[in-house]
Design a protein that fits this description.
By secondary structure, the protein is an alpha+beta fold. It has a domain at about 175-305: ApbE-like domains (T-fold). The protein contains eight helices and 14 strands. It has helices at about 15-35, 45-50, 60-75, 85-90, 105-110, 140-155, 255-280, 300-305; strands at about 5-10, 55, 120, 125-130, 160-165, 170-175, 180-185, 205-210, 210-215, 220-225, 230, 245-255, 285-290, 295-300. The chain is globular and about 60 Å long. The model is unreliable at about 195-200 and about 310-314 (pLDDT under 50).
Length: about 325
């Protein structure tokens, strides 16, 4: 997945660490073999290169992709897992960074070959319709699914107190070594004009109780060109990186896969539609808005309740 993972346990004698690590690596390796667009022989890469037709997928890939397409339908395309070609065009795919911005014609061509409405799902046969040229990308949901699968490993080994992290997405169960809820910190993005010598903003602490948290933002994967920031989250309506003033969105959910995808969806929607959608759906979400060189925080009531009342301006 191009990132790291960590697991913290309060029951170190429950299983030998080297045994547990081997099992976790095997699980993540299996996910990578199915869902990584960085591997040319992965199941999703083969699907992306396939000719027009129905294709039966491995169970896990089908499960994650069908969930992503369901969210695409519910958000009317504000979240779209079929933008792989556009992601590559903007330098966020396997080919890596670009030297010049893509032209309008290239963006239009990539958009013409994208779109969740161009595909379909056959649940009884675990099959996906490939119309030809459609490139699926599960970067916005795969890490969350990986977190859930590591947690499932720990559950099978009857480990009751843990904190799992993959690339910044987290899932907690039970309590920490002090018999308190796991305390985690939501990163606060740096102001654009922060000097190198200035102290970094402190994180926003919350309590994570038997649940997951995932964050999507514009401050980790981006590039600057002509004095403008281009973040990795793309607007399906324009084919360009989003340009609104949201810095990040964090979502709480029992399942990290759902939190991961929802955080991307809400971030893509922007500072008005994102909070509106979250409140309509009762989603526990925290929004960080850029506001005149500072950050303004906005959260739903569901987020404040689940975060242990710690959603206070840092």
């Amino acid at each position: 997945m191009g990132t790291t993972w960590t697991v913290k346990l309060c029951e170190p004698d429950a299983i030998a660490p080297e045994t547990l690590e081997a099992v976790i690596q095997a699980v993540l390796g299996r996910i990578t073999e199915q869902m990584s667009t960085w591997k040319p022989d992965s199941a999703i890469s083969l699907l992306n290169r396939a000719e027009r037709g129905w294709y039966r997928l491995p169970d896990e890939l089908f499960h994650v992709l069908s969930h992503a397409l369901e969210l695409a339908r519910d958000t009317e395309g504000a979240y779209d897992p079929t933008l792989g070609k556009l992601a590559g065009l903007w330098g966020f795919g396997p080919a890596g960074a670009l030297n010049i911005l893509p032209g309008a014609g290239d963006v239009a061509d990539a958009m013409a070959q994208a779109g969740w409405r161009r595909t379909g799902v056959n649940a009884p046969h675990c099959a996906i319709w490939q119309p030809g040229g459609l490139e699926f990308d599960l970067s916005s949901i795969g890490k969350g699914y990986g977190v859930d699968q590591i947690a499932a490993v720990l559950d099978r080994h009857r480990i009751e107190h843990y904190l799992v992290e993959v690339g910044g997405e987290l899932k907690a169960r039970g309590s920490n070594e002090e018999h308190m809820p796991w305390s985690v910190s939501i990163e606060v993005p740096e102001p654009a004009d922060l000097s190198e010598s200035a102290p970094r903003p402190p994180g926003l602490p919350i309590s994570l109780v038997d649940g997951s948290i995932a964050t999507s933002g514009d401050y980790r994967r981006y590039f600057d060109h002509g004095g403008k920031r281009y973040a990795h989250t793309l607007d399906p309506a324009t084919g360009h990186p989003v340009t609104h003033r949201l810095a990040s969105v964090s979502v709480l959910d029992p399942q990290c896969m759902a939190a991961d995808a929802l955080a991307t969806a809400l971030f893509s929607m922007g500072p008005v539609q994102g909070p509106e959608y979250a409140r309509r759906r009762g989603i526990p979400a925290l929004f960080m808005h850029r506001d005149a060189g500072d950050l303004a925080l906005e959260w739903t009531g569901e987020f404040e309740a689940l975060a242990g009342g710690n959603a206070n301006t840092p």
